[in-house]
Design goal:
28% of the residues lie in helices and 25% in strands. By secondary structure, it is an alpha/beta fold. Among the domains are: 8-236, ANL, N-terminal domain (Rossmann fold); 414-511, ANL, C-terminal domain (GMP Synthetase, Chain A, domain 3, 2-Layer Sandwich). Helix 1 (8-17) packs antiparallel against helix 2, helix 2 packs across helix 3 and helix 6 (183-194) crosses helix 7 (214-225). It comes from Mumia xiangluensis.
Length: 519
Amino acid sequence: MTEHATLADIIRTTAKRTPDAPAIVGEGRSVTHGELSTRSDALGSGLVSLGLEVGDRVAYLARNATEYWELFFAAAKAGLVIVPLNFRLSADEVAWILSDAEPAAILVEDHLAHLVPGDFSGPRLVFSQDGDPQVPAGWESYEAWLATLPAVDPHRELSGDALFSLMYSSGTTGRPKGVTTTVAGFLWAVEAFGAQFDVSPASVSLVPTPYYHIAAGGWSLIALAAGGRIVQFTEVTPQNMLGLMVGHRATHVIMVPTVMQLFITSPEASKADYSSVEWVVYGGSPISETVMVGAKKVFGAELAQSYGLTETIGVTTILGAGDHVVGATKLRSAGRAVPGVDVAVFDPETGEECPTGVVGEIVTRGPGVTKSYWRRPEDTAASYWPGGWFRTGDAGYIDEDGYVFLKDRIKDLLMSGGENIYPAEVENAIMTHPAVQEVAVIGVPSEKWGETPHAVVVAKPGQEIDGAELIAHTRERLAHYKCPTSVTVVDALPRNPSGKVLKRELRAPWWAGHERSIG
């Protein structure tokens, strides 16, 4: 079992053991474990003094910044629930999530303050990563306010099955759903996942994805809990990723296969000194044998693939280092279940378990699986089979050795550059265009992003649709990464006898020749 009873104990413990050890380096403000604990003490007691009660939500809307971890541990010490928001969302999307989560306070990077509705009633704190913040009317400077507070630990933390985090994931109805994660779930993930990759006080973890993603937030927490440090990214480019990896002597690197391939093929990157790197952990899709061999040659490190969802704290299966060898028959799989996690395949219609090798819906249960969607009892009930089996929405099979092979997405989820996109949300935006009669959004292959949204539309009688203009229309309503990158206009959408659109038929021509149509 973990030595920590609460999430607050993580930073208290490391601050006591190694107060001067770096906790966050790289881009943004660097802090030690001791400084992170002291500042989260002040912030936690400050939020309590503002009247926030146990269980109240506090939102974060910003790029990766040290302020996120100050808020994370302040919330842990004050018994609050943290709500990290995607900074790429539109104002309408941000407003909807805030109305659903009802946070009592919000911490925002100054250039994103305009996304917060003017009628937000709680305390509004603003900070900058580029000097003094621009403080709008009705807001307060985070740094100036924090400086007035005593660094007193509020000691109001929660434990066990108490809610700690709401991470929003787009829903099949077109509206995001808040995925609830408990204190116990996070603590289990820290122990279960960290043990797989030898994370220690000497570890330096490079995590170039946004903290609102469970992969980045989860791995960073694992690194901090071990007393190690995270290399923080405010903006990610191949150049600064290479510079920070080499400059900070990273030991653990989180990547997606497309980025791995970039490092392998770039003359500059392929010749850099990676002698510090011990592990390269990737997710989102499997790698080819060519990329595996190239990555091993360039990095000289162990490789591992992780598969999971926000609903499972990103921890479900791992394809370990032993399976990353030339000729390995399991390389196209997502690995085997992490110890303590059960994985099975059920018939998505009947809920009966499928025989070995038969494709069905991947289901899982374990300590890290979400207990519910925030204020969504019907969605919660629909996401479970009896016995506590959570329905991932991913189709696949398990072989005789327990390896999970993913085949397709039952829920039509797209993953573009590591971002989850639900077609229903994009379709709802497209349907607001006056010339559109019907639309179906599918994922199509992209060499750069893995896949991108593609809109297949039917025009209203007498109307014409210009693809570029339709894309521009959606960009006014959605985060840009959700918008279609291409459009096809057709006379009618293919349907089955019950009237359901046959998206598989729409996808088939695009994915012909690809081994796997799921990220």
